[in-house]
Specification:
Blueprint: E1 2-6, H1 19-26, E2 31-35, E3 49-50, E4 60-61, H2 63-71, E5 79-89, H3 92-98, E6 103-108, H4 116-121, E7 125-128, H5 138-149, H6 160-163, E8 182-183, E9 186-187, H7 197-215, H8 227-241
Parallel strand pairs: 1-2, 1-6, 5-6, 5-7
Antiparallel strand pairs: 3-4, 8-9
Helix pairs in contact: 3-5, 7-8
Amino acid sequence: MNITVMTLFPEMFTALNHSIVARAQDEKRIELNYVNFRDYSTNRHGRVDDSPYGGGAGMLLTPQPIFDAIAALPEANRRIIALTPTGRRFDQRLAEEWSKETELVFLCGHYEGFDQRIHDELVTDEVSLGDFVLTGGELAAMTMIDATVRLLPDVLGKAASHEDDSFSTGLLEYPHYTRPADFRGLTVPDVLLSGNHARIETWRREQALKRTLERRPDLLEQADLSETDRRYLQLISGLSND
């Protein structure tokens, strides 16, 4: 996968030189490139922003530097992602979708955002990290790149490493425990020590359902639930109402 980030602050992305994303680069599973689109400005002062027509507070990123920066990229079938608070909210399903692509370009917004012609003519995806506003798109881009890269084949070492992640199954993940079995009187649930894999899987599924119901019940509306799941949710919902 080739990932290009269009940003005014490429130096911010040193965080991606560590951990899983760094390993993916070392193993040539991804190539990360950073383009400062200010370098493409034809303004003699290198400006990339201007005031909006019709008035209003703040400045807008002008089309010329970004159009020319995109045109300078090698020809490819790519997703061009504008990071904007008006876009679709980023989630695990979108990360999974992007992980199947070969070329991604992230446009990091600033000021009051992009001239609309950038959206209309260049952008394939408008995406927001969440219902809040950041100073720029760089932190959002780093988060989305990390979430996407870890889903690439063999990046985590074992495919199952992400298959049970929170949101991958439509539910929050079940609790995890490791050694020692008794830490200062805090013990691991007996079922996890039983060696009975069927019971363990049932317990994990029930814990994921319970945690999702308690913390993110909105996720249950889209989750792929079996009849057994639904009966369990009805049971624990009834108990919580008593």
